[in-house]
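Sharing a chain and its predicted structure for anyone who wants a worked example. Both blocks are below, sequence first, tokens second.
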Amino acid sequence: MAPNGGAKISNNLYSIQTKFSDTKKNTLAPLVSAIIKSMKTIRDIEYFEGARILMRVDFNVPIKGGVITDDFRIRVVVPTIKFLQSKGAKVILISHIETNEGENISLKPVADHLNKLGVATIFIQNLKNAHEFIENELSNGGVALLENLRFSEGEKKNDTKFAKELASLGDIFVNEAFPCSHRAHASIVGISRFLPSYAGFQFEKEVMNLSRAFNPARPFFFILGGAKFETKIPLL
């Protein structure tokens, strides 16, 4: 099935990130404007009841001693999860997580934290068992979180076989991982080749705020954050 909505957004944001150094600043505003006009969100999904919603989130949160020290990235997508639950969808969350040193670790503490936030979440440790569990045991309105995607080499390589395997778990793809959408990974751009795709509420909010940055009221004060400063220099 041809990608649309959130899929196009993911690919366009990746284009912005990777071609930033070769792009004139005055051409970025029209590009983002075009993205917004073509953006389909979960409000545009026509059916929810019983649908398997495969949602890419950014749960790459800091963990010390098994405890999450900053859960902002988890909390901001809870409204989207609860919206899908209220519509009777089966919500399958996928993400990556790593330490500051780049070591891949388990998402199990995140599943536990979601439960503490009032989102009953089942943790699926083995991707091979995910399909059977989702089909036979995940009820409408249920939520499951898959193990760290980067435990599979196919994720960062944007491997087509791995993307198809992930896509087989859902009927619809929702991108709610704006901070990761500059990456050409299987769970970002690969899946969107095989499923109808939409932007989540938080993703939509991030894109709208990004568009405002191109035409701010003057005078303005610009704050730029992020751990990897080398990716921010082209913007400056």
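Comments welcome. Strands lie at 52-57, 63-64, 67-68, 90-94, 121-124, 143-146, 172-176, 197-199.
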